[in-house]
Amino acid sequence: MAFVKVCALSELEEDTPKRVELDGTPVSVVKTEGEVYAINDICSHANVSLSEGEVEDCMIECWLHGSSFDLRTGKPSGLPATRPVPVYPVQIEGDDVLVSVTQES
């Protein structure tokens, strides 16, 4: 798994998603409840950026239709989304936030 620096930890505001692109993959990086999560930035229901939504209780909400996704698992909490979105491993090294979107072979 290749981890790549996406931002500084100090750049992340609590419960405020930050959109980054990693190897052509849009990723929303979120610091909430003392942890940092990385989730695919595109809603599985519609082609909408999740990083424009709100974060609460370790969930990120799609601003367009209101589906929320668990930042830990990517699973939707209810309709209209029925499919999860990918989540990615995160490592913190000092002030660096590293994310891997590479699948292990």
Report on this structure.
The chain has 105 residues and is mainly beta. The protein has a single domain, classed as Rieske Iron-sulfur Protein (3-layer Sandwich). The protein is 0% helix and 40% strand. The chain has no helices and 10 strands. The strands form 3 sheets. Strands 2-3-4-8 form a 4-stranded antiparallel beta sheet, with no helix packed on it. A hairpin with a 2-residue loop joins strand 2 and strand 3. It is globular. The termini are close together. The model has no long low-confidence stretch (mean pLDDT 93). Keywords: 2Fe-2S, Dioxygenase, Iron, Iron-sulfur, Metal-binding, Oxidoreductase. This is Bifunctional 3-phenylpropionate/cinnamic acid dioxygenase ferredoxin subunit.
Topology:
Elements: E1 4-8, E2 18-22, E3 25-32, E4 35-40, E5 55-56, E6 59-61, E7 68-70, E8 87-88, E9 90-93, E10 96-99
Antiparallel strand pairs: 1-10, 2-3, 3-4, 4-8, 5-6, 6-7, 9-10
Summarize the structure.
This is Bifunctional 3-phenylpropionate/cinnamic acid dioxygenase ferredoxin subunit. The chain is mainly beta and 105 residues long. It is built from no helices and ten strands.
